[in-house]
Prior knowledge:
27% of the residues lie in helices and 28% in strands. It is built from seven helices and eleven strands. Strands 2-1-3-4-11-10-9-6-7 form a nine-stranded mixed β-sheet.
Amino acid sequence: MRIHQALIVCAALIALPALGAEPKPLRALLITGGCCHDYAKQKDILKQGLEERAYVVVDQIHTDDKSTKPPLAILGNPDYAKGYDIVIHDECGSDVSDPKIIAGVLAPHRAGLPGMNLHCAMHCYRVGNPNQKAEAGSERSAWFDYLGLQSSGHGPQEPITITFLDAAHPTTKGQTNWTTIREELYNNIQIFPTATPLARGKQSIKQKDGTTKDVETVVAWANEFGKARIFSTTIGHNNSTVSDARYLDFLAHGLIWACAKSEQDYLKPAAK
């Protein structure tokens, strides 16, 4: 009996280190490059910020090309995300419009791979006039179906007051409302039924006649794209915003939610 009890105690002691073991890090693929943003710095801000907050390793695919049709290595390769747990789209390629190319970018997500989309990713992979509502399920709507929202442009750079809408959602739980520096507020052409708005942004814009007009849109949302969870935010034009701890905290929550993981397990202690 004593030998049996001793064996049980030994087994318990051996198992103790495993109780506090870190989880196997998620593998994320961050895609950056294209028009209008300081991706050379932002790619590293995002990698460092996310890896500090969550158990994730962020690999990068980047191009210094600043055109609206950047030669990203993922284009034409539908297997680009093989081996990853999530793809973070932060590219800006508004003139990448070939439906076959777009289908390849979407291929991993159609197969169920989670996605996180930041800022100008909302204005990529557009077919036809983005200012006209695209019919869900149509060729024109392929990228918008994935995102869960259609946007076509933005107004001037002014501070954005961000208000979180669902305090119980895993991505917004514990987040507090805040106001950005001067940033771009993206419009909402339409929000699809599969999307759940998570935050709204409001700008006060001075008009030519001296009056002020408030403009308010959805700036963050969760979407169901088949079996894939998709998290997106239109916030994130300037480096100061991308490096803001409040922004990076929100992204860490969004990434973990999209991967259907527990924050208790995948948020690092300092981020909890």
